[in-house]
Specification:
One of its GO terms (cellular component) is nucleolus. One of its GO terms (biological process) is maturation of SSU-rRNA. Keywords: Activator, Nucleus, rRNA processing, Transcription, Transcription regulation. There is one protein chain. By secondary structure, the chain is of the alpha+beta class. Among the domains are: about 90 residues; about 90 residues, no CATH class; about 120 residues, no CATH class. The chain has 15 helices and 29 strands. A five-stranded mixed beta sheet has the order 8-9-10-11-15, with no helix packed on it. The protein has a five-stranded antiparallel beta sheet with strand order 17-18-19-20-21, with no helix packed on it. The radius of gyration is 32 Å and the shape is globular. The two termini are about 60 Å apart.
Length: about 675
């Protein structure tokens, strides 16, 4: 999530349906899924095809799998039976008892109480709701009945466990949250009726929140996702934070793009879908106080009460823009899926940073000179740990002005920020989009070199722009040539200077066809016949793409859209680099940030996978593929010959160590 990088994707066959959420086994680092209710699948990151991974068909329908960090996966069946995964895999067809008869499971959760895994699930039958608590290792099951509520029923549940007591929170259809306490230690096995107490009414200033999902943040705060509706107004989906101790709405965030009505919470971060993206929001809860709950806290240095980062918006961006100290819940919004580890700490905000959001808003209509001067001052005054957030605000302010004023583009200012600050793509996702629109290849080059989390779609867009721009245009722009200057030495006539060649398995007579390639006007010819199909500026830009991290699975679909002529040109350049690397004994190109042999070969394979059919059909690619084939074949033959004499060379080394040669001797050894 932090780098916005998809790491894997697996699909079931057409007609099959994944019927419960997939979980990760923390002990084995494997994934566990169930499709078509009874078919269990287990696999890891190295597996590609789900059809070929472990499969077990169970005897009963699975409701949910819960994975506990220290307790292993626990499987809950629709009939109420529970098994640990280890026990289940010993005999997948073992009979599973039906405990709940005609009841339907509505919700379930698992916890660790010490070393004891505990499972709790809620069921419904004819309007009555029941709660089951099972200690798995002891095979101890207790059944409870929820106290009925007139004209309303539970919509969803959440729970936590502390000091041998389960606190069950129920969100009812009357827009209220109720609390139920369930002790783990029970002396009787008879069904008991659980009393409940009102915890919170989800209404404020005449508006009522129709909750769909909620999570517990701490003993005094909960987060509720739902639709907030005032009388006579259209309802709006939003995420809200409530103080249950003082019955107040702490803060809320409107979600105009809609959600899936599901909210997850993990390690002080919210996860929910907003439109078509996954949104991650960090939060931090501090000790609750009445002053903080009602927004009257004046002293930001009050012990046990921390200031918080508000989630105001700047334009349409979900970005931190103002710092206040009025509430005890800290909320830090991250654009889409951004969670850089270096920004995971929420610390107290000093008084002089409180005006960041207001300052940026005040500068919205300022002149260009005043605007940029104020932003430079803001960056110079920014203090850690909110420094990264401030830089993100500055870049977003610059990009927003670029969007509203197409003639404005502070190229030098943006370059200065990217070159001197430790940034990431996730902190300023619109920066590279604007640079692509402006065809600012130097800024794109620096971003590719410095950003560790560039999405594959943006990497492909940069590659396409680099290949499409003419050599004449690139000669007029500033490009960093440090990655090519050591092996493409350019004179004023734009021709390469001959470099020293050390042949590495290449027979010039055997592979003369390689040197007969046609040389176009864009070719930079060396005196020994080898050529670079692109100029040094374009080569440097392409090298920055080769260094960019990517996931093959998610780059390949974009790469297939690369125009055929550009794909051929890129392959010719990769082939040129491949030959250059092979000339060196250590197969390493000289220079700073020069591509490695592994990067070159990986991109060649990726490009051929994406365009092989097109390459075969194109006349201009035929000779290139033939030359590539001949060169690889020659290298394979060369290394094959080396392998044949490897044993003899080792024997020579052994004999040399065994014999203590005198002052002078001649030995004749026959290699067979």
């Amino acid at each position: 999530v932090s780098d916005q990088k998809p790491l894997g994707c697996w699909s079931v066959k057409h007609g099959q349906i994944i019927t419960c959420p997939v979980v990760c086994n923390f002990e084995t680092h494997e994934y566990i899924a169930v499709h078509d209710d009874k078919v269990l699948r287990i696999w890891n990151n190295k597996d590609i095809n789900l059809d070929k991974v472990f499969k077990a068909t169970l005897s009963a329908d699975v409701y949910r799998i819960h994975s506990l960090p220290n307790g292993g996966p626990v499987v809950l069946f629709k009939g109420g039976g529970v098994r640990t995964l280890d026990v289940l895999l010993e005999a997948p067809q073992q009979e599973i008892e039906n405990i709940i008869s005609d009841e339907v499971i509505k919700w379930s959760e698992a916890f660790m109480e010490g070393q004891q895994p505990v499972l709790i699930f809620a069921t419904e039958k004819d309007g009555d709701f029941f709660v089951y608590v099972q200690k798995i290792k002891m095979n101890n099951l207790h059944k409870y009945k929820l106290e009925q509520q007139e004209l309303s029923k539970p919509l969803t549940f959440t729970a936590y466990i502390k000091n041998q007591i389960i606190t069950l929170l129920c969100l009812y259809s009357n827009d209220s949250v109720y609390k139920v306490l369930i002790p783990l230690q029970q002396n009787t096995e008879e069904e008991q009726i659980l009393p409940k107490s009102l915890l919170l009414n989800l209404s404020v200033s005449g508006s009522i929140l129709k909750g769909t999902s909620f999570v517990v943040l701490d003993k005094d705060h909960i987060a509720v996702l739902g639709s907030l509706a005032a009388s006579g107004e259209e309802s709006k989906e939003c995420l809200t934070i409530w103080n249950t101790k003082f019955q107040t709405l702490q803060t809320s965030k409107e979600l105009p793009l809609g959600t899936s009505r599901q909210l997850w919470c993990y390690e002080e971060k919210f996860f929910f879908t907003h439109g078509k993206v996954l949104t991650v929001i960090m939060y931090k809860c501090e000790t609750s106080s009445l002053a903080a709950a009602v927004g009257k806290l004046k002293d930001s240095q009050t012990p046990d009460v921390s200031s918080f980062v508000n989630w105001n918006t700047l334009g349409d961006e979900e970005l931190v823009v103002s710092f206040q100290s009025q509430q005890s819940v800290a909320l830090i919004p991250e654009t889409k899926m951004t969670l850089r580890s270096k920004r995971n700490t929420v610390a107290k905000v000093q008084p002089h940073t409180l005006s960041v959001g207001q300052l940026l808003l005040n500068l919205k209509d300022a002149s260009t000179t005043v605007f940029e001067d104020e932003l430079r001052q803001l960056m110079s005054k920014a203090q850690m740990p909110d420094f990264q957030a401030t830089i993100g605000c500055v870049i977003t302010a610059l990009i927003n002005r670029c969007k509203t004023n197409p003639k404005y583009y502070p190229r030098n200012f943006l370059l200065q920020i990217v070159q001197t600050r430790d940034l990431s793509y996730s902190l300023c996702p619109d920066l590279m989009a604007v640079a692509l629109e402006k065809k600012d290849v130097h800024l794109l080059q620096i971003c590719l070199q410095r950003f560790p989390d560039i999405p594959e779609e943006i990497t492909y867009a940069c590659l396409k722009v680099f290949l499409s721009i003419s050599e004449a245009y690139l000669q007029r722009v500033d490009v960093n040539l440090e990655s090519v200057i050591s092996y493409i030495d350019v004179e004023f006539n734009n021709k390469e200077v001959k470099t020293e060649i050390v042949e590495n398995g290449f027979n010039a007579e055997l592979e003369q066809g390689i040197r007969d390639a046609k040389i176009t006007k864009e070719t930079h010819l060396t005196t020994n016949g080898e050529f670079c199909p692109v100029g040094p500026q374009k080569a440097a830009l392409l090298n920055s793409v080769l260094h960019s991290a990517y996931s093959e699975t998610f780059l390949l679909p974009h790469l297939k859209n690369l125009p055929a002529q550009q794909a051929v040109l890129f392959l010719r350049y990769l082939y040129y680099l491949y030959v250059k690397c092979s000339e060196k004994i250590n197969t390493t190109l000289p220079g700073i940030r020069s591509p490695t042999i592994n990067q070159i070969m990986d991109w060649m394979c990726l490009l051929l996978d994406a365009h092989f059919t097109v390459m075969v059909m194109l006349p201009e690619a035929k000779e290139l593929l033939s030359n590539l084939h001949k060169f690889v074949r020659a290298q394979v033959r060369f290394y094959s010959e080396l392998n044949k004499i490897e044993g003899s060379l080792r024997e020579l080394q052994r004999l040399h160590h065994q014999k203590d040669s005198q002052t002078y001797s001649i030995e004749v050894l026959e290699l067979i």
